[in-house]
Write the structure tokens for this entry.
Amino acid sequence: MCYNLVINLFQGIFISSTGDQAQSMNGNGAMAFDVEYARWLEEHNRQTNELRTAINSHAGDIELRTIVDNFVTQFNDIFRLKAIAAKADSCQILSGMWKTPAERCFMWIGGFRPSELFKLLLSQLEPLVEQQMDIYSFQQSCQQAEEALSQGMDALQQSVSETLANGSPSSSGSPGNVANNMGQITMAMGKLGTLEGFLLQADNLRQRTLEVMLQILTTRQSARALLAISDYFSRLRELGSLWPSRPRE
């Protein structure tokens, strides 16, 4: 049931990226993604400031709609960059090595929990009109999809662990020679290769959640919601930057 829900939520949302940029990312690995992420973050901060200015100056709906659409397009670009980088090393993307250790404490399958957006936004946007009440049913669907993915990740980790545990020890009792256990290692690598799929599905759900919320909200509500999301992640990055230098007793 949950699996079918996940598929329905994801269908038609993710568009994979290939070509020269993917080949470049594959060749340079983590360093290339770090550079691309830094560029993305710089542009994201610029557009956040533009959105904040438009809200504070009470820009008209037409102008605000354009700014919101541009903001969403740029925000979604991080998912494209992650998809390209995941082809080179899905473990690096899932572990969030481009983020600070404190930020990584809040990660779920390579990013934020989609359901956290509801907790973050609903208290600020309520009361909603009757036509917007569908957001609550989607919140429940989102949480079910998250649970399905989490269960899948748990099952994968268990399967890989069991595969590696089936290796044969050497006669001396020390860990078996790699050559003798190549079958188990090859099987484990094959299973670990499915991590990319979990990352893409989790990012699909993150994109889908944002997309549906913005379809339900008005233009002005969408602008306020996007600004709240951006400010939250900005504060989280700041927390991560300051954490290593915190006072210690």
